[in-house]
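Task: sequence design from structure.
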């Protein structure tokens, strides 16, 4: 018997869960679903892959089944088109045996799609999943009526603020009734999220699950490398471990394209996903990767945040992320739903301080692997970083540089 029956979901919702193979709720679902069913506002802090999408969609679907609304009932805001599409796809499954309707609204589509979005916003789909910018385009045209809205959901709120959407979110909230249920979910909970929550939520309940920690099933390791060693190291790791599905993170779109070209040059089955691709092209690349027709996918943080693909065996951080919390999001792409996975991070001399910040955040030391002999030696882990003046594992640091040293660094 499914443990989801403990939540008093209707037979229609339970039938959808059974068809999808859901029988046991995750910790975030166990704690959040009863709160949402009782109509409380909630702040949910849970990392990627813990089941938070179902944690808010399932009780909202139940509310809609009970109330049979005639207007837009729920608005879900997501930071990227990939995540909006992912939420809509999951919603289709959860609501399959119910009369609940939904529409995803995001940029990068044609005029016919805009008209379909307009129809959903005017005729009143039960649930709207939207990216902030595209929704505001519709709101500006004056035909969207959110006056009967019951649920306002912010997913991956920390990423939305990182992308500069604070003003857009507050503007959208201004179109909504003040009496509503607001649900905010975030992988991390920095002060700026707390500040936004204070403006949008009323006496919220709080649920915290595995804050800023990679899943237990992820084997994490770092490699100290020079730039020239990174592509050969990727080739070695993929072939020595017989990896069939790997996701490589780069910090910029330019890096993504360069790495894709380099990996194709050593005859790896690789594709990339970045903001220069239109939505149809992105979906084609993701489908190829999901079906394991593509072995390696190269992406940036913002684009890859919405990728929901099971069985990713290996995540490689081609560069150490600037924000330690981004490391958690990246690593969260593997070992999803209690599975196991591997996460490797390439560390140059300039990256040591950032790498230490990651270890502080996750409160554990990450093991350091040895480069294969044919690649030669990498940077000395104990050498001083020119960018930070710090020594890995030592408290000593330099507070300043002479003008001559700055000039020399500029020439380098």
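Answer:
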């Amino acid at each position: 018997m499914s443990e989801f029956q403990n939540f008093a979901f209707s037979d229609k919702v339970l039938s959808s869960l059974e068809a999808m193979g859901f029988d046991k709720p995750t910790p975030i679902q166990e704690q959040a679903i009863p709160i949402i069913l009782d109509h409380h506002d909630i702040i949910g802090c849970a990392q990627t892959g813990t089941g938070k999408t179902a944690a808010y969609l399932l009780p909202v679907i139940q509310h809609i089944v009970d109330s049979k609304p005639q207007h837009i009932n729920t608005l879900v805001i997501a930071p990227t088109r990939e995540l909006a599409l992912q939420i809509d796809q999951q919603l289709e499954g959860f609501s399959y045996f119910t009369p609940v309707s939904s529409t995803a609204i995001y940029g990068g589509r044609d005029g016919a799609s805009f008209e379909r979005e307009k129809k959903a916003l005017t005729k009143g789909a039960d649930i709207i999943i939207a990216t902030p910018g595209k929704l505001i385009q519709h709101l500006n045209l004056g035909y969207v009526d959110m006056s009967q809205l019951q649920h306002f959901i912010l997913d991956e709120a920390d990423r939305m603020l990182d992308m500069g959407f604070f003003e857009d979110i507050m503007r959208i909230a201004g179109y909504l009734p003040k009496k509503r249920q607001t649900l905010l979910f975030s992988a991390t909970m920095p002060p700026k999220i707390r500040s936004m929550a204070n403006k949008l939520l009323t006496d919220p309940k709080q649920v915290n699950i595995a804050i800023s920690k990679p899943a237990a099933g992820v084997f994490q390791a770092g490699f100290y490398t020079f730039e020239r060693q990174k592509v050969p190291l990727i080739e070695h790791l993929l072939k020595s471990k017989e990896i069939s599905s790997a996701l490589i993170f780069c910090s910029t779109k330019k890096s993504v394209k360069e790495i894709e070209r380099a990996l194709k040059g050593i005859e790896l089955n690789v594709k990339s996903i970045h903001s220069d691709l239109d939505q149809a092209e992105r979906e084609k690349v993701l489908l190829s990767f999901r079906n394991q027709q593509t072995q390696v996918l190269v992406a940036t943080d913002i684009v890859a945040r919405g990728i929901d693909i099971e069985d990713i065996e290996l995540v490689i951080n081609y560069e150490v992320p600037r924000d330690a919390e981004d490391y958690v999001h990246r690593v969260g792409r593997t070992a999803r739903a209690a599975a196991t996975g591997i996460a490797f991070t390439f560390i140059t001399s300039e990256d040591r301080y950032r790498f230490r910040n990651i270890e502080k955040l996750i409160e554990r030391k990450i093991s350091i692997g040895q480069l294969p002999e044919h690649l030669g030696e990498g940077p000395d882990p104990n050498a001083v970083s020119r960018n930070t003046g710090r020594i890995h594992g030592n408290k000593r640091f330099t507070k300043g540089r002479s003008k001559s040293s700055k000039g020399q660094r500029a020439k380098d």
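The longest helix spans residues 52-67.
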